[in-house]
Amino acid sequence: MNQLLVFILLFGIWKLMTWSNDLGSYIAGILSALFITLLYGKEFPYHPKHTFQIRRYIIFIKFLFVFLYQMIKANFVMAYRILSPGPPIKPGVVKISLRLKSPLGRLILANAITLAPGTFTLDITEDTLLIHWIYVGTTDPVEAEEMICGNLQSILKEVFE
Amino acid sequence: MIDLLFYVLMSIGLCFVFLGCVGLLRMPDVYCRLQASTKCVTLGTGSILLAALAKTGFSAIGMKALISLVFLFLNSPTSAHALAKAADISGIKFWEKPGDEKIYPAKPRPTVDSDIE
Amino acid sequence: MILLFSFLTLCVAMCVYRIFRGPRAADRMVGIDILGIIMIIFCVLLSLSTGSEWYMSIAIAWAIIGFVSTLTLAKFLEGRNLND
Amino acid sequence: MKKKGMSEIVQSVAKMVFPFIVLYGISLILYGHITPGGGFAGGVILTGGFVLLVLAFGTDYAFRILPVNVAKALDSIGALGFLAVALLGFTGGAFFYNFLPKGHIFHLWSSGTIIISNIMIGLKVVAALFIAIAVISKARLIRTKDGFQYKQSGERKR
């Protein structure tokens, strides 16, 4: 089941990549997608049980909008910090707790924090994230989580678990 | 309409790329440079790729722009994370504004020598 | 179009300045990473101005190679071997 | 026992990105005669994927995907296949003669023997560079009085 989904995904990407419509392209796409599925299909991080639940996609689209808003805000904040004289920064490191278990969710949370305003992921362990913050507001873990990632973690927990 | 969208996205992207490079020059230490440049340059490049997608529509150029957009948004934060972790391990100190109090206790860092026999 | 290219050349000049000047090795690596992303923008602009799709394949290949090389440099900076 | 490989985020990204790098390399090889690319470029991109696995997980994981013995066999197959395509040109009268039928222009099957040569060159490049990476990854960095020095640390004892 998992490998079938990987095959369909790879074939779709092949068609997008070559974007031609003759017979040879279809045959070569099917052969190469089959080859990669046999080579690496088991290791691909995918959640086959969650694939056909529409609710998760809707929540994920909501997550994308929240993330887009955060990213644009991040860029304007960063532009202000870059352009003002004597950059108004006070860098430091804070810890927040990490409750997600699925690897894909952890990956997306870490990358979203890297693109969120003023923060990026410095290190990741089992249950904590170590975050470099360019203007440290607080050092308390709970408040820091509220200020840095807002409700991103709970949304991702709904999507991937 | 499409032309207007194209020009707006392109100018936004170029402005942010330029800001990211200015941040690369102005920030005081490695971590702040990485923050400024990664965020601004990633959003700028994404905006320019979206402009290419809007200009050409469903064609080979647009689809390849879409693929490299997904690829860039997956990879650019990851390489920034790897660089920051490597700089932390190799023992580069955080910059502090002179006169500020220490905010955090420095975490124990393994030095480079401990990994090498 | 000339204006856009000269604008990007200015960005490349800033990155090159950081690569030459950077006080530690990590600063130079940040410069190299950003330079790789700016090259992708060059490819996209060339593709839009000439109208041929081949420059976009160069952009994807450049993105892949840039990612792998940045990871290699990071692992080297950590002071570890390739096998660790 | 220290954990092998880089951090967890890099490992997840490597697992997600590796199939697409391989797919892109294969498409560069197969479309080498009508777009930029070809055997060598596609082979280098494919090797980049394997280097990504070696960096993220260590060599054991990468050798489970592509064992060294298979790589050695692919190396020989690439060289011999390229030679065979060249020799089969004598059926049409000359070395490297393009004896296969040529299809419509700008389609995948439009070049006769060039595509087979490209595939063989790609196999050769992937296998050779992968073996080179496998040899390099056995080297260890040793700190001496004078500075750093590389030393080969294999299991084989003389």
Protein architecture, described:
- The complex is a heterotetramer of chains A (161), B (117), C (84) and D (158).
- Chain A is built from six helices and three strands.
- Chain A has 161 residues and is mainly alpha-helical.
- Chain B has one domain.
- Chain B has four helices and no strands.
- Chain C has 84 residues and is mostly helical.
- Chain C has one domain (2-77).
- Chain C has three helices and no strands.
- Chain C has helices at 2-21, 25-50, 54-77.
- Classes of the chains: A mainly alpha (161), B mainly alpha (117), C mainly alpha (84), D mainly alpha (158).
- Chains in contact: A-B, A-D, B-C, B-D, C-D.
- Chains B and C meet through helix 1, helix 2 and helix 3 of B and helix 1, helix 2 and helix 3 of C.
What is the 3D form of chain B? elongated
Strand coverage percent of chain C: under 5%
The profile of the biggest β sheet of chain B is: none
Largest interface: B-C, 49 and 44 residues
Which residue ranges of chain C are poorly predicted, with pLDDT under 50 across at least 5 consecutive positions?
Answer: none
Number of structurally distinct domains of chain C? 1
Largest sheet of chain C: none
Q: What is the gyration radius of chain B calculated from CA atoms?
A: 19 Å
Helicity range of the residues of chain C? over 70%
Count of individual domains of chain B = 1
Strand content of chain B: under 5%
Radius of gyration of chain C in whole Å, from Cα?
15 Å
Shape of chain C: flat
How many strands in all of chain B?
0
Average residue-wise pLDDT of chain C: 87
Integer average pLDDT of chain B: 80
SSE topology sketch:
The complex is a heterotetramer of chains A (161), B (117), C (84) and D (158).
Chain A: H1 2-18, H2 23-40, H3 54-83, E1 92-97, H4 103-115, E2 119-124, E3 128-133, H5 141-148, H6 152-160
Antiparallel strand pairs in A: 1-3, 2-3
Chain B: H1 2-26, H2 30-56, H3 60-89, H4 112-115
Chain D: H1 8-30, H2 39-57, H3 59-65, H4 68-88, H5 114-136, E1 139-143, E2 148-152
Antiparallel strand pairs in D: 1-2
